[in-house]
Design goal:
The complex is a heterotrimer of chains A (392), B (308) and C (266). With 392 residues, chain A is α/β, with parallel strands linked by helices. Chain A is 32% helix and 18% strand. Chain B is flat and about 75 Å long. Helix content of chain B is 70%, strand content 1%. In chain B, helix 4 packs parallel to helix 8. Chain C has one domain (57-262): MetI-like fold (Orthogonal Bundle). In chain C, helix 3 runs parallel beside helix 6. In chain C, 53% of the residues are buried. Classes of the chains: A alpha/beta (392), B mainly alpha (308), C mainly alpha (266). Chains in contact: A-B, A-C, B-C. Chain A binds chain B through residues 5-6, 23, 87-88, 90, 93, 188, 194-196, 237, 240-243, 245-246, 248-249, 252-253, 256-258, 365-366, 379-381, 384, 387-389, 391-392, and chain B through 68, 70-71, 73, 91-92, 95-96, 151, 154-155, 158-161, 176-177, 255-256, 258-262, 267, 270-271, 273-277. Chain B: It comes from Labedella phragmitis. Chain B: InterPro entries: MetI-like (IPR000515), MetI-like_sf (IPR035906). Chain B: Keywords: Cell membrane, Membrane, Transmembrane, Transmembrane helix, Transport.
């Protein structure tokens, strides 16, 4: 699953975008930062479209005949789909730069760099009828628009929840303290997500419990704030049974009881058989999470089929299938009618208040994302080094 | 091949004189010029290994002295020793190196200890038929994917897993995940690679030699120690190269059964995969390279390199 | 060697014990391929044939299997040619730097996979400007497979000596004829054994492959890796592993027959 690799999408602030756009424009600040022109209309379909996406986003039945939302699109439009998956946002970026892709499903950290680099074109949402059905709180956010132009059609979003063993915790924990300050009570049975981006979870916890540190955004940490988060995580390390990055590992360790508390995804909870004493909760400090977007390449060879795909994948049926398979909330309000019974409630689809508690994954950069200009923030490279030290 | 091979052989019934074709002349020429022959033999392999491998390694080593731009992720050629210094002085790198080498040594020792009796039984005790069956049995697990086997061990070692299942009645507990689980799983994965060279080495020890030793009054143990072991030493070292080097670079098994531990491979992987910092990854990669070069240098004289 | 009866029995018992330990995890894999649990928990909660049914319809798995067979075959062929050439050069000639050449052949397998992987990845992409894919995997695999062929052929050449080749030359056979009619038949089983090992090595390699495969090409180990990250695919992966183990009996058996038929009396 895609989230195995690194930090993904991201809620970046306006200042970050402006600076990125500036960099890309090489001084020509007035020019639109994205590449390509806004399409006026969808013309004749070209008969093929190439898509770059996270694994599990473009399934044509080759992995499981039951999981197929590409064939219907091909039949409807005559656009033959060729797709490629990538493992990290960096990989996506270099592939997109090598050219040849009409459409990309990108995460927040990649989207900004794609827009800045002129690799993706601004969208004419009038040509995407299904765009209307998408939740407003996902539209035109800092990570999928720039200079008033829309660059991405939201696909799905999700939260990194707290999973706990109901035998150990008869009452749902209300705070992440069960994996931080009170972790010693279950030493050796705590888990954490194995990626530098997990430092943001600790920062988010400190935001609530150590207000003196002045953390405003868990992805914008100066040296001192990072040091505090690292300190917290080193304390946690002593009680961690194992770090997880793959799906199967997380399911297994909660199912067998090797692990009793730690971060998880809703889809993992769903995969654990009924009767296993585990549940998930959204603690009071909030959660980290992700939100992905579909974008069109600025030099797409098949822009018309690309628009057709964007509209199709935003349609309630396709959006429902794709996001349910992947295990995240859909972006289309009407998708819930096409998801299995209870599948939307599980992911709190469309619940604006729930969504507002999510700090969407974002790649930390030296320019503080929270708008501070008096200090330099720690970047992802620094987080990686810190993460390795934490693990020891 | 002697140089007069080119002289026409005596006319004999049934052996026609070879015709003087261009190919024939080339063959004659080549057999007179062993240097040219050697050159022709070595050109392709050396070209391949030199161009593909040595050039790639050299390029990687050079990268260790460069830096990476953290925003664009591109490597910029600014010569400096920062990465090397970081790796040499960072406490985390020292700790992880020691841990990794420890795991690799343990895995190697376990594998050799297990492989010796089995290889001996296969080569010197089992009937030829049985020998064939045993070789098949040892080699077959190699084909069940590495990942599948590692996950199988994860399942075996889990709470309520097979081991727990078997030892709980006796008041025991599964050892769970961690470094010990990593050692067990790696030793399991590389065992066939250690058994096979030792088995092949034992096959080359003539039975007559063992009998001679017995006839001269040596007890079994003495024969093993004074006759078999010295002859077998290169084969043992050859097997150890496999288990040691494969363990040294592993990052997948430790992720699956290693609990919260990390090894050198993980550090390299994170830096190159997630952080996109090839120069630092290259600097870390120098550690296993240096260890292996030293190891190969030490064992070169034993002749082990010809027994892999 | 005249081993005492207890010694023989002890050795036999040890062998059996180790083989049991070796096969227990494989047994777990087999059992789990029929388990109703999708996350491979022990003990299996129920019995199902569902995974065996879906595995054979899994186009992704089948195409990855086919890719792996192609990669391994090509890498094996290349390493057979290169490995034999080096082995003959080193065994039939003595020259300055002989030791270095043999070290060079061994290096790709002796250095950890992750080092080889990132070195080749870097060289292919940034130095040669190649798009990673099928071709780059073959090149990478062939590089570390040469050593298995090399060692088998070298050991055989050492054992057979040069008498027959000299006789052939004395009788007027050209170099090629000597190789074709004298050397090659002597090498046949060594080539088969070396080739089989090379094939196996390439077939199950994941670390170097991860770094040289790029995104479009999926070998079987990569497919397995990806599918352990997809919902509900873990049992299917087990089915495939079981099938592979069973199918592998054929080439190993053939190799054994060839080696057995040629066995020289000790």
């Amino acid at each position: 699953m895609k989230r195995t690799m690194i930090g993904r999408p991201a809620a970046m602030t306006g200042i970050a975008i402006a600076s990125v756009a500036l960099l890309a424009g090489c001084g020509t600040t007035s020019a639109p930062s994205g590449g390509g022109e806004v399409a006026e209309e969808v013309g004749e379909l070209e008969g093929s479209v190439s898509i770059l996406a996270w694994p599990g986003y473009v399934e044509d039945g080759s992995n499981d005949p039951e999981v197929d939302w590409v064939s219907a699109f091909e039949e409807d439009t005559g656009c033959e789909v060729t797709s490629q998956t990538y493992g990290t946002s960096d990989e996506a970026l270099s592939l997109m730069k090598s050219g040849g892709y009409d459409v990309i499903a990108a995460s927040g950290d990649a989207t900004l760099r794609l827009i800045a680099g002129g690799d993706v074109a601004p969208l004419n949402t009038d040509l995407i009828p299904n765009y209307d059905g998408i939740y407003d709180f996902l539209k035109e956010q800092s990570w999928n628009s720039a200079d008033g132009e829309v660059y991405g059609v939201p696909h799905g979003y999700g939260a990194n929840l707290l999973m706990y063993n109901t035998e150990v915790f008869p009452e749902a924990p209300t705070s992440w303290s069960v994996v931080f300050d009170d972790a010693a009570a279950n030493a050796g049975k705590i888990t954490a997500y194995d990626s530098p981006i997990y430092i943001a979870d600790a920062a988010m916890y400190l935001m609530a419990h150590e207000p003196d540190l002045g953390i405003e955004n868990p992805y914008a940490l100066d040296e001192d704030q990072l040091a505090a988060a690292v300190e917290l995580l080193k304390g946690q390390r002593a009680n961690v049974g194992e770090y997880w990055s793959d799906y199967l590992k997380s399911i297994q360790s909660f199912e067998t009881g090797n692990i009793v508390a730690g971060t998880t995804w809703q889809v993992i909870k769903n995969s654990i058989p009924e009767g296993t004493p585990v549940d998930v909760t959204l603690p009071e400090e909030g959660v980290t999470g992700w939100s992905d977007n579909w974008m069109v390449g600025s030099d797409a060879a098949s822009p018309n089929c690309a628009y057709a795909w964007l509209d199709y994948i935003a349609s309630p049926e396709a959006n429902a299938q794709a996001t349910e398979y992947f295990g995240e909330a859909p972006s289309n309000d009407a998708a819930c009618e096409f998801r299995s019974e209870g599948q939307c409630e599980l992911y709190h689809a469309g619940d604006e208040e729930y969504a507002s508690q999510i700090w969407y994954w974002s790649t930390p950069i030296a320019e503080c994302l929270d708008g501070r200009t008096d200090v330099e923030c720690t970047d992802y490279a620094a987080w990686t080094t810190a993460w390795q030290e934490i693990k020891g | 091949m002697t140089s007069d091979a080119a002289a026409p052989p005596h006319q004999r019934a049934g052996v026609p004189v070879p015709r003087e074709t261009p190919a024939r002349r080339l063959s004659v020429l080549l057999s007179r010029a062993p240097r040219v022959r050697l050159g022709l033999l070595l050109t392709a392999p050396l070209f391949w290994l030199g161009l593909v491998y040595i050039a790639a390694l050299a390029a990687l080593l050079v990268t260790a002295f460069w830096t990476v731009d953290s925003f664009t992720g591109t490597v910029s050629i600014e010569w400096n020793l920062d990465n090397i210094v970081t790796v040499l002085t960072g406490a985390v790198y020292q700790a992880v190196t020691l841990r990794t080498v420890g795991v690799a040594i343990l895995v190697t020792i376990i594998d050799i200890v297990i492989a010796l009796p089995i290889a001996f039984y296969m080569a010197k005790v089992a009937s030829p038929r049985m020998q064939r069956v045993l070789v098949i049995l040892v080699l077959m697990p190699l084909w069940a994917s590495y990942l599948v086997k590692a996950y199988a061990w994860r399942s075996v070692l889990s709470e309520g897993g097979l081991i727990d299942w078997m030892v709980t009645p006796f008041g025991g507990n599964t050892p769970g995940y961690g470094l010990h689980a990593t050692v067990i799983t790696l030793a399991y994965l590389w065992l066939p690679y250690v058994i096979m060279p030792i088995y092949a080495g034992l096959e080359r020890v003539p039975d007559s030699l063992l009998e001679a030793s017995g006839d001269l009054g040596a007890k079994t143990w003495r024969t093993l120690r004074s006759v078999v072991l010295p002859l077998l030493w290169p084969a043992i070292i050859a097997g150890s190269i496999f288990s040691f080097s494969l363990s040294l670079g592993d990052y997948i098994t430790v992720n699956i059964v290693g609990g919260a531990s990390q090894m050198l491979g993980n550090l390299v992987y994170t830096n190159v995969g997630a952080a996109n910092n090839l120069p630092l990854a290259a600097a870390i990669a120098l550690i296993p390279i240096a260890i292996m070069i030293v190891y190969l240098g030490l064992v070169r004289r034993t002749g082990a390199l010809e027994n892999l | 060697m005249r081993l005492s009866r207890p010694a023989r029995i002890t050795l036999g018992a040890l062998t059996i014990a180790v083989l049991i330990v070796v096969y227990v995890p494989l047994f777990v894999v087999l059992v789990n391929s029929f388990s109703t649990s999708q996350s491979l928990v022990w003990p299996p909660p129920g019995f199902t044939l569902e995974w065996w049914g879906t595995a054979f319809q899994n186009r992704g798995a089948l195409s990855a299997l086919w890719t792996s067979v192609q990669v391994a075959s090509l890498a094996t062929v290349i390493s057979l040619v290169l490995g034999t050439l080096v082995a003959i050069a080193l065994q039939r000639h003595s020259f300055f730097g002989r030791q270095s050449v043999s070290l060079l052949v061994i290096l790709p397998i002796a250095l950890p996979g992750i080092v080889t992987g990132i070195a080749l990845n870097n060289a292919f992409r940034t130095i040669l400007g190649l798009q990673l894919g099928f071709f780059t995997i073959v090149v990478a695999h062939a590089t570390f497979c040469i050593v298995t062929v090399f060692n088998n052929v070298q050991a055989r050449l050492r054992r057979t000596g040069t008498n027959l080749e000299e006789a052939s030359a004395d009788l007027g056979a050209g170099l090629w004829t000597t190789f074709r009619l004298v050397t090659f038949p002597q090498l046949r089983s060594a080539l088969f054994a070396g080739g089989l090992l090379a094939f196996a090595l390439s077939f199950d390699e994941i670390i170097v492959t991860t770094f040289t495969a790029g995104v479009g090409t999926t070998t079987l180990p990569i497919w397995i890796f990806q599918n352990l990250f997809r919902p509900n695919q873990a049992p299917v992966v087990n089915v495939i592993a079981v099938v592979l183990v069973v199918v592998s009996l054929v080439p190993i058996y053939i190799a054994q027959r060839i080696a057995g038929a040629e066995r020289v009396p000790k």
